[in-house]
Specification:
The chain has helices at about 5-25, 30-60, 65-85, 100-105, 110-130, 140-155, 175-185, 190-215, 220-230, 235-240, 245-260, 270-285, 290-310, 310-340, 345, 350-360, 360-380, 380-395, 400-425, 430-455. By secondary structure, the chain is mainly alpha-helical.
Length: about 475
């Protein structure tokens, strides 16, 4: 019986996220939006559950079944807020090109179902592959699952994990807290919980791609984007390794997809941006690179929204975006100040050494060559070439309002790539080793968000009366 308790708790977390998302959603969702809310709920629910788990571990560890009380309290709070809230603002549909309406006619309406079916097949495959290495690959064994065991069994001494030589004390705790809380429901650690979580990341990521593009660009774009995403062998391998990078990619995509659904020209409030900011904060609570993403999303939002809608709309939306980020960013800062400690990237060298590394041309060439090589291994090159040709054929959106979402995604991705390259340039570790052990994983964090951006740019075939 205890074996199924973690999965009941996981479902309860997703339902908590569903209540929170519906509480903040600006209208009564229907169709593709309702399904987007469902997959977004997995992101928000697991992020909220991790926040509750941290409170339990630092303050209520002595209380029997304290983790259950925290989960129940969060569920009751957000369910009550959702029920008390009015039915939402009635605003115009988010789809400006009406592609979604026409694309639902005929056999094409089954494309999202087929895409999600492909995702389920991939998820089953990933789960089966993970049985070969049930404890995951190196990072899962040495960092994430080890920390989860400290959190599960450590009681008041759980902070001893920061003294472990391979524990990476500066890494945030969303993933180990989530694993430890689900383990707590069954009373012992097991390999099945991390494996199911990594499948959850994969399904949620694919679901967010399918549903957001179904609403914004039509079901054909959604199906093509799913094919592009899931034909990346490295992406599926990463899912089976139980690394936190998969969760990072999900939170990044959730933030970008939620921003894409925000339509200020229809008089929408900033509630969607609160959810986008919260997902960005969850990324920061997942890995250190998430802090860079929170900064990148802020910069991208300021630049893109100012260009497409003006400074006044940007200022109005920015306060909601930052409001959503605040809880998780504060949590990360608190953790860093109390337990996290400095990163070895900065503590093992001084400013003069960093500047010396930064101005060496050979390091620049090696970093950018490695990143382009890694990108070539991530992409399915023939499909990407077809996508480029398709975009050239149908053209891209020309209105400023339609360019907001792809502009935010593009600028945020560019800032992230430049940030990653900068870290490699100043790293105190052997540069070749550092690139070979992490470069592909960092770019894979951005892969789902980049796929979203690529398919938000071209016009829909429905708008051109093309038959595909």
């Amino acid at each position: 019986m205890t074996v199924i308790l973690p999965f009941i708790a996981l479902a309860a977390n997703i339902f908590t996220g569903w209540c929170m998302v519906n509480w903040l959603w600006p209208r009564r969702a229907q169709g593709g939006e309702a399904w987007f809310i469902f997959f977004l709920s997995a992101c928000v629910g697991l992020g909220t559950g991790s926040l509750g788990s941290f409170i339990w571990r630092i303050a209520l560890w002595w209380l029997p079944l304290g983790f259950v009380l925290i989960d129940v309290a969060l569920l009751v709070i957000f369910a009550t807020l959702w029920r008390l809230r009015s039915r939402g603002e009635q605003v115009a549909p988010v789809n400006t090109n009406k592609a979604d309406d026409t694309s639902r006619r005929g056999a094409s309406k089954y494309l999202p179902v087929m895409a999600l079916g492909l995702a389920i097949v991939c998820a089953i495959t990933v789960f089966r592959i993970s049985q070969v290495h049930p404890h995951g690959q190196w990072d899962a064994q040495a960092i994430w699952n080890v920390k989860a065991k400290f959190l599960l069994y450590g009681q008041a001494q759980w902070t001893n994990m920061f003294a472990a030589p391979v524990a990476r004390s500066d890494y945030p705790l969303l993933l180990p807290l989530t694993i430890a809380r689900l383990w707590s429901y069954q009373g012992y650690d097991s390999t099945i919980v991390p494996q199911v979580l990594t499948v959850t990341w994969l399904l949620a990521t694919t679901g967010l791609i399918v549903t957001s593009l179904s609403v914004l660009a039509g079901v054909r774009h959604a199906a093509l984007a799913t094919l592009i995403l899931l034909t990346s062998k490295l992406f599926l391998e990463l899912c089976s390794w139980q690394y936190a990078d998969t969760a990072m990619s999900m939170f990044i995509l959730a933030a970008l997809g939620t921003v894409a659904l925000w339509r200020p020209q229809y008089g929408q409030t900033g509630r969607l941006l609160i959810l986008a900011g919260f997902c960005a904060g969850c990324a920061a609570w997942t890995k250190n690179e998430g802090l860079l993403f929170a900064l990148a999303l802020t910069i991208a939002f300021i630049v893109a929204t100012t260009f497409t809608h003006g400074g006044r709309t940007m200022g109005h939306g920015l306060k909601y975006l930052l409001l959503g980020m605040t809880p998780m960013i504060c949590l990360v800062v608190f953790f860093k100040l109390v337990w996290g400690g400095p990163s070895d990237l900065f503590s093992d060298q001084n400013l003069d050494q960093m500047l010396t590394h930064l101005i060496q041309p050979d390091r620049h060439r090696l970093v950018w060559k490695s990143m382009f090589d890694s990108l070539g291994r991530i992409l399915h090159v023939p499909l990407m070439l077809l996508t480029v040709l398709y975009t050239l054929l149908v053209g891209i959106h020309r209105t400023r309002a339609a360019l907001l979402a792809p502009a935010v995604a593009a600028i945020a991705t560019l800032v992230m790539v430049v940030g990653y390259a900068s870290i490699y340039l100043i790293t105190p570790h052997d540069l070749q080793w550092h690139l070979s052990t992490s470069n592909e994983r960092l770019l894979l964090q951005l892969w789902p968000g980049a796929v979203l951006m690529i398919f938000l740019l071209p016009k829909s075939p429905e708008s051109l009366r093309l038959v595909v």
